[in-house]
Amino acid sequence: MAIAPNKKDAKDDAEVTRAPRKKSNKKLFVMIAVGVLALLVAGAGAYYFFVYKSGADTVETKPVVQIFVPLEVFTVNLRPESGDNQQYLQAIMTLQVPSEKDAQALKDRMPEVRNRILFILSAKSASEVASVDGKVNLTSEIIESLKKPFMGSESEQSLSGAYFTSFIVQ
To answer: Under a CB-based contact definition with an 8 Å cutoff, are residues 76 and 121 in contact?
Structure first.
C-alpha cells in the first residue's frame, strides 16, 4: 500500500525546490561605507599633516629683520702704482646689522668705524679695487675689520654685511 504523502512534507519539498533567496546587498553597502569612511579619514589626516601642520610651522618662525646703517661718503687717495698719476676712490657704503642694538653700537662708534674703513681703502691701488673680485675681497676685508672689538670693548660687533652703494675710481 502506498502511503499518501503528507501535506507537510510536500510543503517542505516545495520550499527546497524553489529558487534560493537573493543575498542581501546590505553587506556590500556596509563594505563600501567602511571604505569611503577610511578614505575620508586618510584624506583628513593628510590635509592636517601637509597643509595645516606646515602652515603652523611657518607662522611660528619670525622673519629676520635686518637693519641697514648708511655711512657718509669716503674719498681717499689710492696707493699709486708704478708711474701712474694719483688716483682717487669715492665710495658710499651701507652696513647691515641684525638688530637695532647693533646699529646703535655702530653709530656710537662711528669715528672708529670710519677710521678702520679709511685705512683699508687708502691701502689699495686702483687695479686691486677695479674688478668685481677686488670689490668682493675689499668688502670681506672691511667686514672682518669691523667685527673686531673696538677700543674699550671686549665683544665683537655683529655685522651681517657691507654694501657699496656708490663706487667711483678716478
So the answer is: yes
> What are the cell numbers at 89?
676712490
Compute, in degrees rounded to 10, the torsion defined by CA atoms 166, 120, 76, 90. Answer: 0
| Distance from C-alpha of 138 to C-alpha of 131, rounded to nearest angstrom | 11
Reduce the DSSP state of residue 161 to 3 states and report it. strand
C-alpha dist (Å) from residue 43 to 33, 35, 40, 49, 132: 15, 12, 5, 10, 53
E-only strand ranges, the chain: 67-70, 74-77, 88-97, 161-169
Is pLDDT of 13 > 70?
no
Distance CA 91, CA 86 (A): 17
Dihedral pair phi/psi, residue 34, rounded to 5°: -65, -40
Please report the pLDDT score of residue 155 as a whole number: 82
Burial of 165 (0-12, 13-18, 19+ CB in 10 A): exposed
d(CA 77, CA 118): 10
CA distances to 20, 27, 60, 65 from 23, rounded to whole Å, are 9, 9, 57, 70
- pTM (two decimals): 0.61
Nearest CA among 152, 145, 134 for reference residue 95: 145
